[in-house]
């Protein structure tokens, strides 16, 4: 293919942008630290200012890695879902994973008072939120997998995911109605999403899940390409449709589930990045699309995080709001620009 | 060679199987162009799906190149039969060359890289169907006739001894119907592949096919066009109130 060389160049460019944005991200924040010192903290012996060293190594750097893993992971799950369902509006959360996570977290936060003060203190620790949201996603995932084993029609899984989302949203509203304002606020803060509160230990757990999800996605590349022809053609080309569907769902769940557990629900990145990348690299070959989407997701997330810090101020806006503010106009712009949404 | 003996096709249900057609006996030889005709809903597509291994059949046996269809793995099957389907859920954003290249999937490595041989086969397919000029277009830019040719090229790239097409002439004008069917005829002659296609263009099929399979509600008849005409096999396909088969002109005529 004549385009391959150009695509490889673009991939390299995207990768360089990831590094660049990561550096910009590290250098910005509510405390001003001179670039010279940042570089010496990152790459050489460090600096005399211990507080700076702490801010960079224990706060900003884990946040940069979290942004990279979340952005790229969500973007990959978006791509997987869009190809599996052959639906341009599919995203990482169409399987209902984030709704499951929300339900788990809502039960822990807003139900904590029911279990008494001692239990509440334990339940509201950070790990219990992570565990609750993982369990929530896992439950929904199991339900979706059971449904997918029973159903021949892939589209039905999409609808089942949407139904789970409505169901859990309803349960969350009921819980919210009976909750005191303080706990409601805590839940809402969780739903804003956050990249900044992860320790290195948590980042490495996220990294393991990310890696597993990406490896599975890489092994699906060939079949993903075949799926572009539709399931019947794919079957005639020797693709085992249900096995393949199972692996794609597992990969998506590993990525979206672990990201939601650690960073909360983050909207639009998964939906928008694959479309943005197709604008830059007009190919359908997942060999190119997958790495491109990984880099693209990381870049978008790093940029959103920079925007969320409101450079020059002490405020940090909720990351989920920023990604939606960026993502929604992008999707609208794509629709208007192409007039026809060919997928 | 593909053969079906005492084949029953239909759907497997928990409450009992739904049989659509039974006691089907068909033989298709190497290099034959075979047309499958019958009224809407008689089970042509089901028969094609059963023969191509996409759908399980109820009873009887299908053998391909002396191997039982059920014993073939999905990879072996993909190297034996390629299909062109009526439904078009394909991503229209695919370029023509990408789409044709996907025909090589059964032969490529785990990540789907094309080898030199793969590229050659793709090029041969493009030349056989004569769509060199369309290679860089995207599918949404193509007319129905062009898309049909591209889908046939994809099946050719899959490099299988059998090609099965489900109504390849739907949505095409008379010229392109003739074009596509002549193309199929040419392919059977030049590549010695066996091609089976379902069609409603009986008049065209009669002129081009080596063999015709007529599917009726309770029986399936097969034979060369000449034999079938002599046996009056065409007179009962359709209700006789509107059209009839005219032996002289070898075509269906409207009753006046």
UniProtKB/TrEMBL annotation, chain A:
<keyword id="KW-0472">Membrane</keyword>
<keyword id="KW-0813">Transport</keyword>
<dbReference type="GO" id="GO:0005886">
    <property type="term" value="C:plasma membrane"/>
</dbReference>
<keyword id="KW-1133">Transmembrane helix</keyword>
<feature type="transmembrane region" description="Helical">
    <location>
        <begin position="315"/>
        <end position="336"/>
    </location>
</feature>
<keyword id="KW-1003">Cell membrane</keyword>
<dbReference type="Pfam" id="PF01032">
    <property type="entry name" value="FecCD"/>
</dbReference>
<dbReference type="InterPro" id="IPR000522">
    <property type="entry name" value="ABC_transptr_permease_BtuC"/>
</dbReference>
<feature type="transmembrane region" description="Helical">
    <location>
        <begin position="156"/>
        <end position="178"/>
    </location>
</feature>
<dbReference type="GO" id="GO:0022857">
    <property type="term" value="F:transmembrane transporter activity"/>
</dbReference>
<keyword id="KW-0812">Transmembrane</keyword>
<feature type="transmembrane region" description="Helical">
    <location>
        <begin position="246"/>
        <end position="268"/>
    </location>
</feature>
<comment type="similarity">
    <text>Belongs to the binding-protein-dependent transport system permease family. FecCD subfamily.</text>
</comment>
<protein>
    <submittedName>
        <fullName>Iron complex transport system permease protein</fullName>
    </submittedName>
</protein>
<dbReference type="InterPro" id="IPR037294">
    <property type="entry name" value="ABC_BtuC-like"/>
</dbReference>
<feature type="transmembrane region" description="Helical">
    <location>
        <begin position="198"/>
        <end position="225"/>
    </location>
</feature>
<feature type="transmembrane region" description="Helical">
    <location>
        <begin position="129"/>
        <end position="149"/>
    </location>
</feature>
<feature type="transmembrane region" description="Helical">
    <location>
        <begin position="64"/>
        <end position="81"/>
    </location>
</feature>
<dbReference type="GO" id="GO:0033214">
    <property type="term" value="P:siderophore-iron import into cell"/>
</dbReference>
<feature type="transmembrane region" description="Helical">
    <location>
        <begin position="93"/>
        <end position="123"/>
    </location>
</feature>
<feature type="transmembrane region" description="Helical">
    <location>
        <begin position="288"/>
        <end position="308"/>
    </location>
</feature>
TrEMBL record, chain B:
<dbReference type="GO" id="GO:0005524">
    <property type="term" value="F:ATP binding"/>
</dbReference>
<dbReference type="InterPro" id="IPR051535">
    <property type="entry name" value="Siderophore_ABC-ATPase"/>
</dbReference>
<keyword id="KW-0410">Iron transport</keyword>
<dbReference type="GO" id="GO:0006826">
    <property type="term" value="P:iron ion transport"/>
</dbReference>
<dbReference type="GO" id="GO:0005886">
    <property type="term" value="C:plasma membrane"/>
</dbReference>
<dbReference type="InterPro" id="IPR003593">
    <property type="entry name" value="AAA+_ATPase"/>
</dbReference>
<protein>
    <submittedName>
        <fullName>Iron complex transport system ATP-binding protein</fullName>
    </submittedName>
</protein>
<keyword id="KW-0813">Transport</keyword>
<keyword id="KW-0547">Nucleotide-binding</keyword>
<keyword id="KW-1003">Cell membrane</keyword>
<dbReference type="GO" id="GO:0016887">
    <property type="term" value="F:ATP hydrolysis activity"/>
</dbReference>
<dbReference type="Pfam" id="PF00005">
    <property type="entry name" value="ABC_tran"/>
</dbReference>
<keyword id="KW-0406">Ion transport</keyword>
<keyword id="KW-0472">Membrane</keyword>
<feature type="domain" description="ABC transporter">
    <location>
        <begin position="2"/>
        <end position="242"/>
    </location>
</feature>
<dbReference type="InterPro" id="IPR003439">
    <property type="entry name" value="ABC_transporter-like_ATP-bd"/>
</dbReference>
<keyword id="KW-0067">ATP-binding</keyword>
<keyword id="KW-0408">Iron</keyword>
<dbReference type="InterPro" id="IPR027417">
    <property type="entry name" value="P-loop_NTPase"/>
</dbReference>
């Amino acid at each position: 293919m004549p385009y391959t060389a150009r695509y490889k160049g673009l991939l390299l460019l995207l990768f360089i942008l990831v590094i660049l944005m990561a550096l910009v991200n590290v250098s910005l924040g509510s405390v001003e630290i001179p670039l010279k010192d940042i570089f010496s903290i990152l790459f050489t012996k460090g600096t005399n200012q211990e507080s700076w060293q702490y801010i960079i190594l224990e706060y900003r750097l884990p946040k940069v890695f979290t942004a990279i893993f979340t952005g790229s992971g969500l973007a990959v799950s978006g791509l997987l879902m869009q190809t599996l369902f052959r639906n341009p509006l599919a995203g990482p959360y169409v399987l209902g994973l984030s709704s499951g996570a929300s339900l788990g977290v809502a039960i822990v936060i807003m139900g904590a008072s029911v279990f008494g003060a001692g239990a509440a203190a334990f339940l509201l620790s950070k790990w219990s939120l992570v565990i609750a949201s993982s369990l929530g996603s896992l439950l929904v995932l199991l339900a979706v997998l059971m449904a997918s084993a029973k159903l021949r029609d892939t589209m039905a899984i999409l609808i089942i995911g949407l139904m789970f989302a409505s169901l859990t949203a309803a349960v969350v509203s009921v819980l919210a109605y009976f909750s005191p304002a303080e706990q409601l606020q805590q839940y809402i803060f969780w739903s804003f999403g956050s990249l900044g509160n992860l320790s290195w230990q948590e980042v490495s757990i996220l990294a393991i899940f990310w890696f597993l999800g990406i490896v599975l996605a890489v092994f699906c590349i060939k079949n993903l390409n075949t799926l572009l022809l539709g399931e019947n053609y794919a079957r005639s080309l020797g693709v085992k449709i249900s096995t393949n569907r199972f692996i794609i769902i597992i990969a998506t769940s590993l990525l979206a589930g672990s990201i939601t557990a650690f960073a909360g629900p983050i909207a639009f990145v998964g939906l928008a990045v694959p479309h943005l990348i197709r604008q830059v690299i007009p190919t359908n070959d997942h060999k190119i699309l997958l790495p491109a989407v990984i880099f693209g997701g990381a870049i978008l997330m790093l940029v959103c995080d920079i925007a969320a810090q409101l450079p020059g101020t002490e405020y940090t806006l909720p990351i989920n709001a920023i990604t939606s503010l960026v993502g929604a106009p992008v999707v609208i712009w794509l629709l208007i620009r192409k007039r026809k949404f060919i997928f | 060679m593909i053969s079906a003996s005492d084949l029953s096709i239909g759907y497997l249900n928990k409450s009992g199987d739904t049989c659509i057609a039974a006691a089907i006996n068909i033989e298709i030889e190497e290099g034959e162009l075979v047309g499958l005709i019958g009224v809407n809903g008689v089970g042509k597509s089901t028969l094609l799906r059963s023969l191509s291994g996409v759908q399980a059949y109820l009873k009887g046996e299908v053998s391909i190149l002396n191997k039982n269809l059920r014993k073939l793995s999905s990879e072996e099957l993909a190297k034996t039969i390629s299909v062109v389907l009526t439904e078009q859920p394909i991503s229209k954003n695919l370029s023509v060359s990408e789409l044709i290249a996907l025909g090589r999937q059964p032969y490529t490595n785990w990540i789907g890289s094309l080898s030199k041989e793969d590229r050659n086969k793709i090029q041969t397919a493009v030349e056989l169907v004569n769509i060199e000029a369309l290679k860089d277009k995207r599918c949404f830019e193509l007319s129905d006739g062009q898309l049909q040719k591209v889908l046939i090229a994809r099946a050719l790239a899959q490099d299988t001894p059998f090609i099965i097409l489900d109504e390849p002439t739907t949505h095409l004008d008379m010229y392109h119907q003739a074009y596509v069917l002549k193309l199929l005829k040419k392919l059977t002659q030049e590549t010695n592949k066996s091609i089976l296609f379902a069609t409603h263009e009986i008049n065209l099929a009669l002129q081009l096919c080596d063999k015709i399979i007529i599917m009726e509600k309770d029986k399936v008849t097969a034979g060369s066009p000449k034999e079938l005409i002599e046996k009056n096999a065409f007179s009962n396909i359709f209700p006789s109130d509107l059209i009839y088969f005219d032996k002289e002109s070898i075509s269906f005529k409207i009753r006046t």
